Structures are given as structure tokens and as C-alpha cells.
Amino acid sequence: MPGNINPLAAIATLVLALPVMASPAGAAVLPGVNLAGPGFASGKLPGRFGWDYVFPRQQELDYYKAKGMKLYRLPLSWERLQPELSGELDQAYLGHVKDFVAAAKAAGGMTIIDIHNYGKYRGQLIGSDAVPPAAFIDLWSRLAHQFGSSPSVIFGLMNEPQQKSADEWAQLQQQAIDVIRKTGARNRISVSGIGWDGAHNFPQVNGDALARLHDPRNALIFEAHQYFDRDSSGTSPDCVPEDQVEGRLAPFTDWLEAHHAKGLLGEFGAGRSPQCLADLRRAMTYLYSRPANWFGWTYWSGGPIWGEYMYTLEPKKDGTERPQMGVLTDTMHAKP
User: Fold this and answer.
1) Where is the Glycoside hydrolase family domain (predicted)?
2) How far is CA 29 from CA 106, 170, 195, 290, in A?
3) Is residue 1 a part of any domain in this protein?
């Protein structure tokens, strides 16, 4: 999620031997969207389902399926999913996740289970006395047992972790990868970096540390985020000049190529101005020009209660499409 954005305030790698979803217009890059809602109102725990937080509705899936989306990144609250560290998963919340996974699969899509916690649990960093690494490993052991037989599920280990050291975070992710594989799960695993997971500075901040990650199934996807406002924070409706767009994506793309890896642009977004829409088109054209490096993308954001949030893809109440969706669908269906 873009830094310093409160969603409720906004309201007022490689391919393994698993089925691979078809790509638009013959391209290898899979299109998708974040469907936010399950992690909203993170300060209200456990919160009220249908009020403080929501899960995507069938009508959202129907809309995005019709637009050609294949990847659905589902931002979850660790605290709602697992109310006590190393304890049982909450069956009601887990049930909503399972229902969504089944609906997305029926729609021909894949679900990225995204633990949207910034490397924390109840505000305390993983690796602190309050949240030992074993708790993070326990979470992913439990999720692997729940979804390890579902090839349509990708495990997104953590959104935008705030650990101070890329090496420390890489070690925590390696432990999660190891425990997932120990369960026998064959799912793809999406790994993230510190420093807001930016594509523009990925090699300098995360490159060396994440290059040391190892998966015996060779099924890692490296995730990065990138916004096109001045400071890459995703907090402004304004955008940089179009000729700066590729320069923000190229460092990560080149790192992927050098390491024979696949990438996911897990979050990106742009405002509705002509400049921002031109930036968005340029970004998408660039991604589709590098299919050997990119597994896919998930735009930030969709979901039912964004209101007039500047980056939303949800159509207006009268059904009017957002201009960003027009750009995305145009580039998705353009000939490679």
C-alpha cells in the first residue's frame, strides 16, 4: 500500500510444473489487480466484518474478469487471520479467504495471498522480543497446509516489510520458504524487499540480499512496487514526466534479467491527469516489452469501498469506467 495512506481515510521464478494461466493477446505477462478490503481499519482489531473491513464481492471478480485480469492480490490482516501469535487461524476470516480463492479460480484467475503487515504484528517488528521469527514461520506453515494443494494460490510472504536490514529480512524469508517446502506445498512464492520494496532502487537496497534466497522448487517470484509521483510514495495525484517512467522500472528489470528471475510489480498506480495516464501507458508498454523478466502485475487498487480514491479502478456508481482502466486494458490487449 502506498506509504502514509489510510484506506478508510481515502473513502471520505520461474514457471514450474503447474498449470499456467493464459496470457492476454499471447503475452507472457499476467495482468492483475489488488482487491483491497480485508486489511482495512488495521487499528480496529478484530474489527467488524462488512463495516470495518470487507472481502471482495462476486461483482468485483466479474468486473475484473471481464477486463482480462488473471492475478488477484488479496491484502490480508495477519492479526485477523491469526488472532494470537503461533495460535490457530481464525476460521471465519480463513473461510472468507478460501471462498475468494475458489471464486477467483472459477473466474480463471490466481490469488496472491498477501500478508499486508509491513513486517509487523500488532505494530511490533518480526524479530523483536514481542514477535519472534518463529511466529512468522508458524504463520506460513499453517497457510501452506491450508493452500499447499491449490496451484492457483501464490504465497506473498509480506507486504513492504520495515525491517532495517535487507539481510535480516532475507533470512526471515528463507526460513518461511523452507517451512513452506517442508509441508510439501508446491505453490509459487512471492518474496519482497525492505525500503518500501521500490523497483527504482531495488538493486542497491535489496539486490544482494535477495539474490541469496534459495527455493528447491525454483518457484520464487520477486516482488517490487513502484509509483510515479515525485518521490515514488504513491501519495500524490501528480506524476513525473513520461521520460522518467522506464528509469524507475529498469533497475529492477535488469536485476531480474541478470539473475534469471521473474518479477511481479505487486503495487503501482497513477492519478487521472493526462500526465499520469501517459506515465501509466508508458509503464505498461515497458512491462510488456520485457516478458522474459516479468511474471505479472497487480495494479493498486480495486475493491468495493475506495470511493473517490485517486488510484481506484472501481467504476463509479453509474458504471462509468475509471480512465486508468482504459489505459490498462488498451495495453493488455495490444499486439506484442
Assistant:
1) 50-301
2) 20, 26, 25, 8
3) no
